[in-house]
Fold this protein.
Amino acid sequence: MAPMARVALFDPCYMSALRPQDAGFARHVLEALGDQVTMIDGRCCGQPAFNSGFRNEAHSVGRELLKAARPHQTVVVPSGSCTSMVRHYLPTLFEGRRASGAAAIAGRFADFASYVAGHPALQDVVFKLDGVVTYHDSCHARRELHASGAALQLLGRVEGLEVRPLLYEDECCGFGGTFAAKQPELSVAMMTAKLDDIALTGARVVVSADYSCLSHIESGARGIGVQLQGWTLAELLSRALS
Amino acid sequence: MKTYRERASREIRLERPSATVTPIMRKLVGDSQAMLSRGPADARQRASAARAYAIDNLEDLHVQLRGRFERRGIGYHRCATAEDAVAMVRSLLGDARRVAKSKTMVGEEIGLTHALRKDGIDVLETDIGEYIVDIEGRGPSHITAPALHLNRARIREMLARTGADLPDDDPTRLSRHVRDVVGDFFQDCDAGITGANAVVASSGRITIVENEGNVSLGVSHPKLHIVLTGIEKVVADEAGALAILEVLAPSATAQPLTSFSHFLADPLPGQQRHVVFVDNGRSRALRDPRYREVLKCVRCGACMNSCPVYRVAGGLSYGSPYMGPIGAVLAPLLWPDGRYADLPFASSLCGRCTEVCPVGIPLHRMLLDLRADAVKGHHAADLKERTAWKLWALSFGGATRARAATAFTRVGLRSFGRTLRPPGPHRDDPRLLPDPSIDHDPELLLKASARRSIIPESAITEALPASLPERFAHRARQLGVDVVDACVPREGDRLVRATAAIASTGSVLLTGDQAARRPLLAAGRVVVMVDPATVVAFPHGLAAHLGGGDALILTGASRTADVEKIIVRGIHGAEEMVVVLG
Ligand code: SF4
C-alpha cells in the first residue's frame, strides 16, 4: 500500500442541498484508497454569482472557501464546475498580492476524477459492478479541466460495467447554472436533446463528473416520465467497491 | 421585442429553428474538424499569430497600407462611426444608381442597404442567401449562411413574392433562378460593393473569398468597386493572409478553400477602387485588455455552428447584425448603450465556442466579463435580483449560515420538490425541482434496453498518394475537377496556365493576366494547365508564388450551399473545370 495521504474533501453547497448522500460516496472511495479525509462544508466557490455577473458577491463567498482550504495540501472536489471555478476564476477576483495567495491555494484543488485516476493506490483497489451506463461529459470537466480521460479511464476499471458511448457527447446538457432558470426555453430544449441522445444508448443510468448537469437531466427525465438516473462518478465507484 | 429571451421564445415557439439548424450543424462541425485535420498541424496557431500581429500593430500597418494604396491608385478611407461610413459610401457612389452588393457583415452592421435604398438607389443583394433574406426582410441568421433558417419550401415562397414562378423547390433550381436575376443585373450596373477578408499592408492587395462568383463579377464588371471592411482586417503580409485562408473555409463551411480566393491588386483600366475602413467602436474594444482579442476574429462562424444556444434559438433571436457567441461578445462592445447587454447571458458557458475558434479567442471568458460589465453598468439585473444576490452572499459568507441555508433548501425540496415546477412563466417547462430524498436504484443498471444509436467508426485514415502532384490530382478530383494528361480544346474554353497548385486543397493559383475574371466567368469550360513541379503542399506555400499583381486561387467550380447547405455547382462561371497536369 502507498503511504496514507491526508486530503480535504469539499462538499459543494449545491450538492449538500440537492444530493447530500454524495459526499459519503466520495469519502468512501477516498478512504478505500487509503486517504485520511477531512470534510469542508458550508462553503461555496462563488460560481452562481460569478456567472451572473455579481463579482463582489462571488468574491466575498469564494474567499471563505479559500480560507477553509488554507490548511490543506490537497482539496478534492466531487464536482467539475466548482473545481474549474476555484482554479480558473476565483483567483482573478483578488487583487495584487492577495491574487497570488489565492492562486496558490486554488492550485491545490483537484477534481475527483483526476485525483482518483492519478492516485498511487488505485491499482490496489478492485471495482466491480454489473450493469450498463452511459457517460455524460460535463463541459467544465471536459474543456476547463481536461478530466474526461480520467473519468473514462476510471469507468473502464469497473469490472462488469458496460459503458455505452453517447452520440454528441461534447454537447452541453443545457444546465449552465443560473442559465437554467434565466433562459428556461433554451435550457429545456438543450436538455431534451440530451435526453434523446441518452435514450438512444438504452442505458438507464448516466454517469458524470458533475452532479449539476445530472440534477438538471434527472429533473427533466422525471418531469417527462423517462426512467433515468444520474449518478456521479463518486457514487458509481463507491457502489462498485462494496 | 425588447429582450433576447422574448425573441428567442418566440422563435422557438413559432419557427422551431432547431429542426433545420441542428442536423445541419452537427454534420458541419464534424466535417469541419475533418477538413482542418487535413491541413498543417500548426494552421490554427499560424492564423492566430497573424491576427494577433495585426491587432498589436494596427496603426503602423495602416500607415504602410495607405502608402501602398496610393501607389496602386486605390482610395483609402477611414470612418469613425457607422453614420460616417454610410455617408462616405454614399459620396463615393456619386451618381451611381444601380449598385450590386455582395455579402459584407460590416454592411449589415452600418445598415448600408437600407440607407442607400432610402436615397432611391437600386441596391441588389447578389449573394444568393442574402438575396433570399432580403426578400424575407428579417436579416441574415448566420454570418456565412444568411438563409440558414429557411428550408427550401420557404425559400420558394420568398422567391414567389418577387414574381418568380418556380415549378418546384429543388435547390439547384432555386439557386440558379437567383443566379440569373443577379447575372442580368450585372449586365448594367454602376457600382459593386464587397467586403474583404484581409487587406495586406505590405503589398496593398485585398483578399476576398467567395463561392458563387458574385464577388468576381462585382470586382470586375462595374466601373466602381467599393470595399467595406473593419479597421482590424489589415494583416502584415501575404503569408498572414494565407494563414487566415488556411483555417477560414475549413472552419466556416468544411471546404478546403472557397471556390474563389481573390488577391486584388491595381484597379482595372477605367475602374476606380476604394476601401472604406469602419471603426464603429473597434478602437475602444482594442484598448480594453479583456476584449481586444475579439478583433482577431476572421468571421468564420465556427463559434455559432457549434453553439447549442444558437442551434436552439437560431440567429435572428440575437436581434443584432452579429449572432452566436461572436455576436454576443461583439454587439455589446460595438453598441455599448445597453441595447445588447442581455446577449452575453444567452449562453450556458459550455465553452465550445472557445474550443473551436480557429484564432483562439476566449469567447466564453469574454461573455463572463461582459456579464459583470452589464451588472455594473446597470444594463442587466433588476433590483430584485440585486437584492437576492446580496442575501445570498450574506448567507454563504459564514459556514454556520451556509449550512443553515443548504439545510433549509434541502428540507424545502424534500417536501415540495416532487411536485413543484421551477418558478417562472414558462408553461412548457417539464422539469421538476430536484428532490434530495429520492434514492438511486442500482437495479436500473441492469434494466438497460438495446442500444439504438450507431456510433460512427472513427474515420479510417485516407491513404494519400505520396507525391505532391498526385495528391493535388486526388484532391482536385474530389472537388469535381477533371484531372487529365491532355485535353481536346472545345469552343468556349478559357485556357489558362497556373503559376502553382496546392496538394492539400486541389487548388490552382492564377496570377497576372491569367487571373482576369471576365473571361473566366464567360467561359463554358475552364481548362487549367498545371506544371507538376509547381505543386506546393499547403496554401501557405503559395506565399512565394503570388507575385506582385493580381492573383486568384481557384478551388473547384463556383458553387453555392445557400439552400439547406446543399451544394449546387456552377453558379456564376463555368460548371466544368479541367486540369491538365503535365
Ligand atoms: S469568434 Fe472565432 S469562431 Fe467565431 S466567427 Fe470569429 S473567428 Fe470564427
Remarks:
- Residues 338 and 377 of chain B are 8 Å apart (CA to CA).
- Chain B has a mean pLDDT of 94.
